[in-house]
């Protein structure tokens, strides 16, 4: 039997797997072998196309990640703000507890029993052991305490950050962990963030190190002493691509850390009956230990729907926080909401340092252009405020021409002289004010009233003195 001709054309390509089996003479029949070959070809084409699609997608993702990691440093201003706020938190916590340093961490703190049975093992680690070593001597411990506070200020100002940040981290953790009863979970987040911040570039902008680098002060990098001097000056030692990768990876780790905190806290709240019932905010605000503003707490909790909205809103905000970061509009809503959330905790529940630590980490989610615009607005407001405070009266600011008075000879008539008026600059004349005033040079009466100038100063002539009476005519 002769082989039937192959079916070609759009129909054959659209429906390649049609098998016509019919007994009879002269009817076309596609062989099973051709059908199988077409099936294999289509499957191979699908597999190859799918493989190319997957490989191409993976390559594009890897290329994007590589470019994002090593191309440039992201959130430079956000990380700098994080450094400033964390330095302020460290200094503020040490400063507010200075008078109670002996009772909390020094020789008078042995009442808590941690000198014998440690709850936290960090003070026993040699890196953080200096506070434990000097805690028995009040004078030595006070010196160490003040050094830690000075290092916190150095971190906040960005002075020699490559050296001061690790030293502050070691001393601060060694002091705070001496008394576990005086801390909270904010100390854990603070410690973790400080550790990761040492691998980023927190002093790239808004720091004294950045101003020093901008001045072009550099040194050689040949010997170990040259490297120590470069570290002291805050200069870079590693290749640029490696520093970019470390900085951006720190951003990823900080994002993951704050996401774990918010999502875990939100899920834990959702499983509790007070939170799911919408009454959880009421109870802690009525406890004297936490409620620092009883009148304000009573005002907030007086309306039941507000309590329920705050309880349920905090759960939704914490759980949805990582997803809201994916879009600019929702990211703004998330940051505004989380800022209000921490402000309420810090003001109403007496946890300012915990709230400020979390706000410091959240600063990395604000774009650099937003921080730059905010800084420009703040500088403009500061300049205007200084200009307003330095204003003097109008007459004091207006320069005057010297007045030259020439004496006339005795018996001669006095010549007219000019008394100079103050030299006044063009001033802003509001519409409707001074309707009959003339215009200054270059502006006529047709000029808009808002841009008319004040009348130019004109010399005031002094009339001649009357001649002395002579003898009467004959």
From TrEMBL:
<dbReference type="GO" id="GO:0012505">
    <property type="term" value="C:endomembrane system"/>
</dbReference>
<feature type="transmembrane region" description="Helical">
    <location>
        <begin position="332"/>
        <end position="354"/>
    </location>
</feature>
<feature type="transmembrane region" description="Helical">
    <location>
        <begin position="249"/>
        <end position="268"/>
    </location>
</feature>
<feature type="transmembrane region" description="Helical">
    <location>
        <begin position="138"/>
        <end position="158"/>
    </location>
</feature>
<feature type="transmembrane region" description="Helical">
    <location>
        <begin position="75"/>
        <end position="95"/>
    </location>
</feature>
<dbReference type="InterPro" id="IPR053934">
    <property type="entry name" value="HTTM_dom"/>
</dbReference>
<feature type="region of interest" description="Disordered">
    <location>
        <begin position="436"/>
        <end position="474"/>
    </location>
</feature>
<dbReference type="InterPro" id="IPR052964">
    <property type="entry name" value="Sporulation_signal_mat"/>
</dbReference>
<dbReference type="Pfam" id="PF05090">
    <property type="entry name" value="HTTM"/>
</dbReference>
<protein>
    <recommendedName>
        <fullName>HTTM-like domain-containing protein</fullName>
    </recommendedName>
</protein>
<feature type="transmembrane region" description="Helical">
    <location>
        <begin position="302"/>
        <end position="325"/>
    </location>
</feature>
<keyword id="KW-0472">Membrane</keyword>
<dbReference type="InterPro" id="IPR011020">
    <property type="entry name" value="HTTM-like"/>
</dbReference>
<keyword id="KW-1133">Transmembrane helix</keyword>
<feature type="compositionally biased region" description="Pro residues">
    <location>
        <begin position="458"/>
        <end position="474"/>
    </location>
</feature>
<feature type="domain" description="HTTM-like">
    <location>
        <begin position="76"/>
        <end position="370"/>
    </location>
</feature>
<keyword id="KW-0812">Transmembrane</keyword>
